[in-house]
Amino acid sequence: MTGPAPAVAAVRVAVRRALAELETGALVLVACSGGPDSLALAGATAFVAPRLGLRAGAVTVDHGLQDGSAERAEQVALLLRGLALDPVDAVAVEVGGTGGPEGAARTARHAALAERAEAHAAAAVLFGHTRDDQAETVLLRLARGSGARSLAGMAARSGRWLRPLLDVDRATVHAAADLMGLAAWQDPHNADFAYARSRVRHDALPGLERALGPGVAEALARTAGLLRDDADALDEWADRAREGVTAAPGELDAAALAELPRAVRTRLLRRAALEAGCPAGALAARHVFELDRLVTDWRGQRRVDLPGGLAGGRKTGRIVFFANKKGF
């Protein structure tokens, strides 16, 4: 008796590894758009989960951004039920305008998935991101001048979010979907050059492959993994250093901060700004750099303007955060 084709086996093995530590009887939900990546993940999960003593369901999200999206979501849900996944939910969301079209859609989608996971008491939500998606993410963030944590890309595990296919290339995943007989929907947004990720996928990465040779996507994904190890170590160092630099709630001792390596110091400054109320998506590296100058290049600066109507300043040897009003 022959086994599954290599592409199908590769996807199933990746899913098995991701689910191996979950408790028997736990429910996992596959986030499925109906595209080949998430359908291959759904098919593999439907096969693997029962063999591990787990239950498997799925959620498909209708963003309402294209004609016929509601009908398409119901078709995807019907296909998922045909894989014996249960429960299967089709959820309509309203996409806001904050963070650009891609970011706003992602925010709405993740909120819906989190709500469904809570409603079903799911142990994990599975995403179909591949190694190629990871490489695209690294390139996009590199172009924005991101730091090590951001360049580390997507995590294979973040809370209940799991990405089993991050070490599997897109071609293998698509082949697996075809071999499973899953008719995938091709999202036209994936080929629309109005979106930065589409330009990276169809222009930038292929151009790098032509200029540098094959293996660029794999190398970028590998770099993300190495940077994640470094970022985790620096975060742990910052955790240990925090008590020693905290002068009072919401205040950091400038002299103690100055004794730390910059990579650790800036992490502590960023955390303090976020805890003071700065919006995470708006707090940029330049803001943290100016806060760091209050520690390392103090020349009597009055304050550093921060997002969210806040400011940071130095007062009596401490870095403090406050409402951004004149007079400091």
TrEMBL record:
It comes from the Bacteria. It is found in: Cytoplasm. GO terms for cellular component: cytoplasm. It is an enzyme of class 6 (ligase). ATP binds at S33, G34, G35, P36, D37, S38. GO terms for molecular function: ATP binding; tRNA(Ile)-lysidine synthase activity. SUPFAM superfamilies: Adenine nucleotide alpha hydrolases-like (SSF52402), MesJ substrate recognition domain-like (SSF82829). InterPro entries: Rossmann-like_a/b/a_fold (IPR014729), TilS/TtcA_N (IPR011063), tRNA_Ile_lys_synt (IPR012094), tRNA_Ile_lys_synt_N (IPR012795), tRNA_Ile_lys_synt_subst-bd (IPR015262). It holds the Pfam family ATP_bind_3. It catalyses: cytidine(34) in tRNA(Ile2) + L-lysine + ATP = lysidine(34) in tRNA(Ile2) + AMP + diphosphate + H(+). Keywords: ATP-binding, Cytoplasm, Ligase, Nucleotide-binding, tRNA processing. The N-terminal region contains the highly conserved SGGXDS motif, predicted to be a P-loop motif involved in ATP binding. Belongs to the tRNA(Ile)-lysidine synthase family. Ligates lysine onto the cytidine present at position 34 of the AUA codon-specific tRNA(Ile) that contains the anticodon CAU, in an ATP-dependent manner. Cytidine is converted to lysidine, thus changing the amino acid specificity of the tRNA from methionine to isoleucine. This is tRNA(Ile)-lysidine synthase. It comes from Nocardiopsis ansamitocini.
